[in-house]
Amino acid sequence: MKKHQRYAHARQFKRARRELRRLATYLGRVIRDIDRQVRHVPALDAIFRPSLFLASRVREQKRGERGRKVYSIHAPEVECIGKGKPHKPYEFGVKVSVATTIAASRGGQLVLAAKALPGSPYDGHTLTTVIPHIERIVGHEIQRVIADKGYRGHGAPAPYDMRVHASEQRRGVTASIKRELWRRSAVEPVIGHLKSEHRLGRNFLGGSAGDAINTVLAAVGYNFARLVAWLRGLWCALLAAAQLSASPWTDARSASSDHGQRWGSGRDDSTRRAVHHRSRKYRAADHDCRRHQCPGGQLTDPTAQRRRRSARHWRQAGSDSRDVGRQGSPARGGEGG
Predict the structure, then answer these.
(1) Distance CA 154, CA 159 (A)
(2) Is there a contact between 258 and 284 (Cβ–Cβ < 8 Å)?
(3) Statement to judge: residues 183 and 154 lie in one domain
(4) Contacts of the segment 140-145: beta carbons below 8 A, 24+ positions apart
(5) Which of 51, 88, 251, 335 would suit a FRET pair with 154, their CA atoms being 20 to 30 Å apart?
(6) Calculated CA dihedral for residues 62, 63, 69, 72, nearest 10 degrees
(7) Cα dihedral angle (4, 5, 7, 10), rounded to 10 degrees?
(8) pLDDT tens-place string over residues 36-50
(9) Using an 8 Å Cβ cutoff, are 34 and 50 in contact?
């Protein structure tokens, strides 16, 4: 097998086919030898017959052949799913349908239903099975279905044939439907989390029943994770509110007001107005500098550069005036004045 893969990788396809024929010959000899030995022993024949049948299917199948093929010995139910993406043209497993709400709840984008669909059916033909499954779980009739382009030509039963809207659809799309079509991609991160964090990407349960069970468990685990995160945030908010209600606000307000009177007693109204004017101009200069600053840290707008220089001047002038006020203000007990 290694020789076949290495020859194929080196684009030496004639030698690769020769090694593949040699492997098929070895497999055929083993199958016939085991069949001769267990044929006349019913107990052994019942044990080895499924494995011999599976090995015969692997030996006889050809590339490009239509119909069911064996891609894995330990999981014969695995199917080849064509995704049509350059980085991942094929996936091997079972097709799964995932349904979410259009609008996200406070706990996040929850999964309404998830169902394994063996046989690799066409996406549009799965609506006949998926829509009743969702309605049984939710308990309400579905008013609108937003799907991707793979569901074009769905052939959903009435009255759902007029309630299914696919991406990039132009005919019969109102303003509200268009806004909901923009939300269709919200299901993509949900599928990513199900695959990466909740074991939907790799199933450790055997058989078609294991595929169905793993799909439901992955959806339930995802919903529980969302609910736990929402409850954690709610509990933190309640603790913060309890701490704020228990803190001495009245003492803090009185202390802050006394501090403000003591700080402002050493300045007249014109000084306070000047300081307020300088701080406002400094904030405006900082806003312009952040807006016109390039990734390298240099300012690109001449006006922003001029305002930054002016802000530096006023900042220095403000620090000088504060130093003078601290030294010569009678309210602060200074030596001058």
Answers:
(1) 13
(2) no
(3) yes
(4) 144/102, 144/177, 144/180
(5) 88
(6) 100
(7) 170
(8) 999 889 999 999 999
(9) no
Residues 93, 13: one domain?
no
Specify whether 51 is located in the same domain as 102.
no
Answer whether 111's CB lies under 8 Å from 100's CB.
yes
Q: pLDDT per residue over 65-109, tens digit each?
A: 888 889 888 888 888 888 878 888 888 889 999 999 888 888 888
Predicted model pTM: 0.64
Do 222 and 111 contact (CB within 8 A), yes or no?
yes
Looking at the structure, tell me whether residues 178 and 98 fall in a common domain: yes
Classify residue 46: in a domain, yes or no: yes
Query: Are the C-beta atoms of 44 and 51 separated by less than 8 Å?
Result: no
* DSSP code, position 267: S
Q: Tokens standing for 216?
A: 């439901």
Residue 256 lies in a domain: no
d(CA 94, CA 119): 8
Give phi and psi for 186, each to the nearest 5: -65, -20
In angstroms, the CA 127 to CA 161 distance is 10
Rg (CA), the chain: 36
Dig out the tokens for 193 from the structure: 């989390």
- Whether the Cβ atoms of residue 49 and residue 55 lie closer than 8 Å to each other: no
Q: Whole domain around residue 137: which residue ranges?
A: 79-227
